[in-house]
Amino acid sequence: MAKILVADDDPNIRLLLQKQLEYEGYTVLTVASGRAAIDTARRERPDLLILDLMMPDIDGLEVCRTVRPELVMPIIMLTAKGTDTDKVVGLAIGADEYITKPFSLIELTARVKANLRRVDRLKRSLVESHNRLQIDGLVIDTDQHVVTIGDETLELPFKEYSLLYLLVSNIGKAISRDSILYRVWGDDFFGDDRVVDVHICRLREKLEHFPGCPIVIKTVRGVGYRCMKAAETTQFKPAAASSVPC
């Protein structure tokens, strides 16, 4: 069964989540600080992280920034803040889900299960697919879960890797936000389609660091996004109407 790390400085919340998740059959580790969350995540390599935003010594955002490039796992952020800006920031630094306190145990458990199912589905699909997907100098190695552009490695968290794989494997095709949500986040995703825009923005920024990147991600107005070969399109410009700065 999956291993879950719960990082929250409130002992009542830690105990509540531990009992609930252990009842569901998961192995649960708990920590009370940001530093302990980083150290435990690196040592134990959990399958999912439930991370409180406000913690002593190192806050949840910094924990997320630190572990996101190192570990491939869903991250569910817990916070007492509930503004749209807070949600965008949480998603922008690598969180996969955002839950505002006070929360329902039923909803949180459902999100945990949904994220773990999506990870399992993607892993199975990659094992069953070709081991290597290549567009000119961009290579997605599905065995090692590694993306390279030329001689350099592109570090991607789980959702961005899944999103890039979907776009590249459908190069030239317009894919709607709803379709992206269903195929990357799953049909049991809780939230709106802005999460797609946030992850597309982060993915574009990373691709733009590689001058020789052979692909661009274009916005298809009123629909979603299309991945295209750079040689077949004009220079990419982000859509002015996008609600997420990129």
Describe the secondary-structure layout:
Blueprint: E1 3-7, H1 11-23, E2 27-31, H2 34-44, E3 48-52, H3 60-67, E4 75-79, H4 84-92, E5 97-100, H5 105-128, E6 132-135, E7 138-141, E8 146-149, E9 152-154, H6 158-169, E10 174-176, H7 177-185, H8 194-207, E11 215-220, E12 224-229
Parallel strand pairs: 1-2, 1-3, 3-4, 4-5
Antiparallel strand pairs: 6-7, 7-8, 8-9, 10-12, 11-12
What does this entry look like structurally?
With 246 residues, the protein is an alpha/beta fold. The chain is built from 8 helices and 12 strands. The protein has 2 domains: 3-120, 3-Layer(aba) Sandwich (Rossmann fold); 130-232, Arc Repressor Mutant, subunit A, CATH 1.10.10.10. The protein has helices spanning 11-23, 34-44, 60-67, 84-92, 105-128, 158-169, 177-185, 194-207, and strands spanning 3-7, 27-31, 48-52, 75-79, 97-100, 132-135, 138-141, 146-149, 152-154, 174-176, 215-220, 224-229. The strands form 3 sheets. The protein has a 5-stranded parallel sheet with strand order 2-1-3-4-5, sandwiched between helices. A 4-stranded antiparallel sheet has the order 6-7-8-9, covered by helices on one side. Strands 10-12-11 form a 3-stranded antiparallel sheet. Helix 6 (158-169) packs across helix 8 (194-207). The chain starts with a strand and ends in a 17-residue tail after the last strand.
